[in-house]
Amino acid sequence: MRRLKTVAVVGVGLIGGSFALALRRAGGVATIVGADRDAAALERATALGVIDTAAESAADAARGADLVFISVPVRQIPTVLHDVALAIDPTAVITDAGSTKEEVVRRAREEMRDRFPRFVPGHPIAGRETSGVESATVELFRGARVVLTPCEETDADAVDLARTCWEAVGARVALTTARQHDEIFASVSHLPHLLAFALVSELGSRDNASELFSFAAGGFRDFTRIAGSSPEMWRDIALQNRDALLAELERYEGRLAVFRELIDKGDGPALERLMREARSARHAWLSGSKRSPSSE
Ligand SMILES: NC(=O)C1=CN([C@@H]2O[C@H](COP(=O)(O)OP(=O)(O)OC[C@H]3O[C@@H](n4cnc5c(N)ncnc54)[C@H](O)[C@@H]3O)[C@@H](O)[C@H]2O)C=CC1
Ligand SMILES: O=C(O)C(=O)Cc1ccc(O)cc1
């Protein structure tokens, strides 16, 4: 890829920090400017060499940048887009990493006005349950998929630049609509995170919670790892993808009711059949046979 002169990262946490580290190592950028509402995080990002300079605001970081990468919680994105849109050069490209897309795009259109065609909505499908720049790693996006959800108005050269950057850091890019994106991730990401938070919330609220947790084993650890994720980030995702998430919850409740009834009736064969089917589906997913060829 052509080497960009300046990239601005707004929200220098796990995702913004990892993008900065990876793009620098790929030789894709000369200077990285960071902006963050948390001055201490920005200082740590500078000390760790994740960014070269710290800006006072998103607008200051964006001024003169070739690319602006926005990696703040999804309900913070519209304000940042508003500020950045007023500051960027007409040829600059803005992209984001938000885990939801339809509401981000709707608000982007309102906030950015004539700069909206320069915005490439994006979402890297890689991360972890720890937050902050200290958790950032240069390899986070290697082999990961990234979904871009451009609109009719989005400039083709802007999409090309976002794609080129993601490919430079080792990711594979897929294009979908924002609606498709939100429906897919409601099922495989937002629902499981909600279930993990809800389970730990339920057990943790009991009088004997510490006794219960003291007996928990690997299965509990695996199932609840993602309940260690950022509450602010997941609050925003749940509220922004409300309709798709509520639909997924309803389907899940329906399936749970089936399991419940089989246990209630003592129907071992039917219970085992459902569990066998679930295990096979998981094995098939893990061995890669569920990869969709159309999105490669
Ligand atoms: N954590 C994960 O595994 C993944 C997260 N994402 C998305 O990436 C975005 C960032 O997530 P993380 O890096 O995990 O969060 P993080 O908490 O590690 O970093 C977010 C940073 O944004 C800063 N920030 C918040 N509001 C701000 C504002 N208005 N202006 C400037 N800075 C602000 C925070 O101080 C923090 O340093 C979110 O939209 C999230 O949905 C996408 C893929 C994976
Ligand atoms: O912690 C994990 O395993 C995740 O699932 C990370 C993750 C969180 C949010 C996203 O939008 C994408 C990936």
From TrEMBL:
Q: What is its EC number?
A: 1.3.1.12
**Annotated TM spans:** none
**Coiled coil region boundaries:** 235-262
Give the catalysed reaction(s), semicolon-separated: prephenate + NAD(+) = 3-(4-hydroxyphenyl)pyruvate + CO2 + NADH
Residue ranges of every copy of the Prephenate/arogenate dehydrogenase domain listed in the record: 5-293
Question: According to the UniProt record, what class of enzyme is this?
Answer: oxidoreductase
Q: Pfam families from the entry? A: PDH_C, PDH_N
Q: In which pathway does it act?
A: Amino-acid biosynthesis; L-tyrosine biosynthesis; (4-hydroxyphenyl)pyruvate from prephenate (NAD(+) route): step 1/1
Whether S-adenosyl-L-methionine counts among this entry's keywords is no
Keyword annotations: Amino-acid biosynthesis, Aromatic amino acid biosynthesis, Coiled coil, NAD, Oxidoreductase, Tyrosine biosynthesis
Record flagged with keyword NAD: yes
The biological processes this protein is annotated with in GO are: tyrosine biosynthetic process
Any one GO MF annotation of this record: prephenate dehydrogenase (NADP+) activity
Q: Which family does it belong to?
A: Belongs to the prephenate/arogenate dehydrogenase family.
What is the protein name stated in its UniProt record? prephenate dehydrogenase
The encoding gene is tyrC
